[in-house]
């Protein structure tokens, strides 16, 4: 298995230095990772460093807690697109979800997804599966599956529980076959990454990409 092609080589820490971004991009090109996922201020730099390599530039929207306003997420998305991003990983409003406001969540995705798709970009929707009940996760699969997002993503890496095989299997069972799954959060070994791919993940988000492929 060429596991590298599944990996979004990621660093989202708030103290990220430009030198680290340069290293991430060199590693991604060298190993043939799918994408480099970095904070929004580094999108332009990352896009330039990856030019011509085939490695995508990804960033995060409403990260890590998801409770910024729809208008704020839309502005973040548009700025990232202007800066040259290929893929956007957006955290849903978990406060709305936990307060059973599915109308808000439908409005949020209904506002942002058409804008992203109109510009030919990919949207990955982060649902933070580790803090959801099975019923909530199933409803997410129904809502975002019907909306036509590109990926449903397990986790930000900030919750206590990250990606699990069980969550990926559950999502795969409840999503349309056209919607892909990204597993992220606490993935540090080849065995773990392979198990998640076997369970149905099409992309792996990790800051341990180099050590994983070396394993």
What's the topology here?
Elements: E1 7-10, H1 18-31, E2 35-38, H2 43-50, E3 56-61, H3 70-82, E4 87-91, H4 94-98, H5 102-118, E5 122-126, H6 134-147, E6 151-153, H7 165-174, E7 180-184, H8 190-199, E8 203-206, H9 209-214
Parallel strand pairs: 1-2, 1-8, 2-3, 3-4, 4-5, 5-6, 6-7, 7-8
Please give a structural write-up.
Helices cover 45% and strands 17% of the residues. It has 215 residues and is of the alpha/beta class. Helix 6 (134-147) links the parallel strand 5 (122-126) and strand 6. Helix 1 (18-31) packs parallel to helix 2 (43-50) and helix 3 packs parallel to helix 5. The two termini are 12 Å apart.
- The CATH architecture assignment turns out to be Alpha-Beta Barrel
- Quaternary state reads single chain
List the uncertain runs. Answer: none
Order of helices and strands: EHEHEHEHHEHEHEHEH
Sequence of strands across the biggest β-sheet:
1-2-3-4-5-6-7-8
Q: What is the tally of helical segments?
A: 9
Number of beta-strand segments? 8
Helix content: 40-55%
What is the CATH superfamily classification? Answer: Aldolase class I
Short structural summary:
Helix content is 45%, strand content 17%. The chain has 215 residues and is an alpha/beta fold.
List keywords for this structure.
TIM Barrel, alpha/beta, 9 helices, eight-stranded parallel β-barrel, 17% strand
